[in-house]
Design goal:
Layout: H1 3-37, H2 60-72, H3 82-91, E1 97-104, E2 107-112, E3 115-121, E4 141-146, E5 151-157, E6 163-167, E7 175-180, E8 184-190, H4 198-210, E9 214-220, H5 228-234, H6 236-240, E10 245-247, H7 256-263, E11 267-271, H8 278-285, E12 311-314, E13 320-323, H9 337-340, H10 345-351, H11 368-374, H12 380-393
Parallel strand pairs: 3-5, 8-9, 8-11, 9-10, 11-13
Antiparallel strand pairs: 1-2, 1-4, 2-3, 4-5, 6-7, 12-13
Length: 394
């Protein structure tokens, strides 16, 4: 490098350092002036380099409000009647109470009375400190500031009474809330087309139990079953464990009244493979349902083909159903092998009589579980499902 180029480069470096010192001075003076003339603003002290903290200066009450949101959003509503608590809060607020029925990135749809509002989410509502990656979920009760026709702004997310959560796919130490304020999980499978998958049902049951939700099992397309009595016998272990089992068929009109009764007045999350007939069942019990889920674009335009997290649909007889994709994988995430046995109480009762306390019920001698399966006291598929799930965790 020539002396001329070196001298030029040194001049540029000195000029850059002078500009940086000037910017520090401006930021320092700005913070000092705001602290001096606005006593209600949160003071920001410069560090040893003359730099103030890299955050927005805000009033003290705003700082406290954000900190409260960081700790409260996503927390369950303890020891109170949730519905009454939500209405009490709304009665003291200038903003109406709404229910989030659809969520996309940075936007959501909210039912406020009989009106659907497409809403932005206030930037102060952050999930930081809650252990969650999303601040708003389908089923949340929120306070909404109405804006222009059909649009609004979510001002507050009220405390939840329950939620369906799973570990976040990207950040395993955080959780993603899929649906809030739900009562039960309806597991829909079909006897044929696609074939009944009992292992999938077990995974959904584990997910429901870990989220403290009631689980209901619905086996659809029973008109394709050659031996309906055999289907009931196959599923008897679930009924013995206290799970309601519904056998349904839309063409035959089988079990629809029982399904309607199970859903009415409750908020239910649907779980099941594509093609098992979830939409057909919902339309059969409530023909007024609008199953054409409208999606949200970033510019408030309608009709874009964007993927949403979940969609909540109101039932005409009361209650909601939540259709959400891709929740099967949440059943085992974070579960340890010792915990798995708790979700198989029929096997756990037999395991107490095994010769070895750490028996895996696979190859060990003196296994009471394998002996019970050999005597047909325990369905072979129950033990097989348990071993498959155990192998996934090992």
């Amino acid at each position: 490098m020539s002396k001329r180029k070196a001298a030029h480069k040194e001049q540029q470096r000195q000029r850059w350092q002078e500009q940086r010192r000037a910017r520090k001075t401006i930021r320092h003076n700005t913070a000092a002036n705001q602290e001096k003339h606005r006593q209600d603003w949160q003071p920001l002290q410069p560090d040893e380099f003359g730099m103030v903290a890299d955050r927005r200066i805000m009033p003290r009450d705003e700082e406290e409000r954000r900190q409260a949101l960081e700790t409260e959003v996503g927390q369950p509503l303890p020891g109170r009647d949730a519905e009454q608590a939500w209405h009490d809060i709304a009665a003291e607020s200038p903003f109406p109470l709404g229910v989030v029925i659809e969520v996309s990135r940075g936007l959501c749809r909210v039912m406020v009375g009989q009106e659907r509002l497409l809403c932005d989410i206030r930037g102060a509502l952050i999930a930081e400190g809650t252990g969650l990656v999303n601040v708003v979920a389908v089923g949340d009760r929120v306070l909404v500031r109405p804006l222009e026709a059909g649009h609004g702004l979510v001002e507050t997310v009220l405390a939840r009474r329950s939620g369906l959560v799973r570990p976040d796919p990207l950040y395993s130490h955080l959780k993603q809330i899929i649906a809030a304020n739900v009562d039960q999980l309806l597991i829909v499978a079909s006897w044929r087309e696609p074939h009944l998958w009992l292992l999938m049902i077990d995974e959904y049951l584990i997910a429901a139990a870990r989220n403290h939700l009631q689980a209901v099992i619905c086996i659809n397309k029973m008109d394709l079953a050659e031996d309906p009595a055999g289907v009931r016998t196959l599923l008897q272990p679930y009924e013995a464990l206290g799970y309601p089992v519904l056998l349904t068929s839309v063409p035959a009109g089988l079990g629809l009244a029982g399904l309607h009764q199970a859903l009415c007045g409750r908020t239910t999350v649907l779980a099941g493979l594509s093609g098992v007939g979830k939409s057909s069942l919902l339309m059969a019990i409530d023909p007024q349902l609008d199953l054409r889920t409208r999606t949200i674009s970033r510019k408030f335009s309608e009709g874009r083909h964007t993927t949403t997290q979940a969609v909540m649909l109101p039932l005409s007889a009361g209650g909601y159903v939540v259709d959400t994709p891709g929740i099967r994988e949440m059943g085992l995430a974070g579960l340890t092998p010792p915990d798995l046995l708790d979700h198989y109480p029929d096997i756990a009762a037999l395991a107490a009589r095994c010769r070895f306390s750490d028996c895996t019920h696979d190859h060990e001698p003196g296994c009471a579980v394998k002996a019970a399966a050999a005597r047909h006291q325990l369905p072979a598929w129950r033990l097989e499902n348990y071993q498959r799930l155990l192998a996934q965790m090992c």
